[in-house]
Design goal:
By secondary structure, the chain is of the alpha+beta class. The protein contains 3 helices and 6 strands. Strands 1, 2, 3, 4, 5 and 6 form a 6-stranded antiparallel beta sheet that branches. A hairpin with a 2-residue loop joins strand 4 and strand 5 (100-115). Helix 1 packs across helix 2 (43-51). The chain is globular, with a radius of gyration of 16 Å. The protein starts with a strand and ends in a 16-residue tail after the last helix.
Length: 150
């Protein structure tokens, strides 16, 4: 399975008084990675989100921390697709500083359309589904058998 990679340089404003990265920034970086994937592989979906036609609603997220990061560290956020079905997409994230895995997380988003004042479930847009397929996922939401986790 292909990995989508987002590279991030930690800034001082992302650290706390102790000097390490404040925990919530890792979740923020998950969002950066997800949005860069859309910009690179499904710009029409990003445009639909920007106009309010489509909402990608985060329904759950989690993060585990294994080591600390500090200002001016280079952190690589690796995103892989954990599953999809109906209107939902699950993503796994690994955070690396050099060769060390410093954290791991997961996020689930739901595709929603606006209907007046309400949001209603809508299928994963075709452009996004095609981008996910490129990254090793069949339409049924299972890993394609010819790809393995690197």
């Amino acid at each position: 399975m292909r990995v989508y990679l987002y590279r991030h340089l930690v800034t001082f404003d992302e650290t706390n008084l102790v000097g390490n990265v404040y925990f919530a920034h890792y979740l923020h970086w998950q969002g950066h990675c997800r949005e860069r994937f859309l910009a690179d592989h499904a710009p029409g979906v990003l445009a639909a989100v920007a106009t309010g036609e489509l909402a990608l609603v985060t329904v759950s997220c989690a993060m585990d921390y294994f080591a600390e990061c500090y200002a001016m560290d280079h952190v690589e956020v690796e995103m892989t697709l954990a599953g999809r079905g109906g209107n939902r997409i699950e993503m796994d994230f690994r955070f690396r500083r050099g060769d060390a895995i410093v954290g791991a997380g997961r996020q689930t988003v739901a595709c929603m359309a606006r209907s007046g004042e309400r949001l209603v479930a809508t299928p994963v847009p075709a452009e996004l589904a095609a981008a996910l397929d490129e990254y090793g996922w069949s339409a049924e939401g299972r890993r394609s058998p010819d790809r393995s986790l690197a």
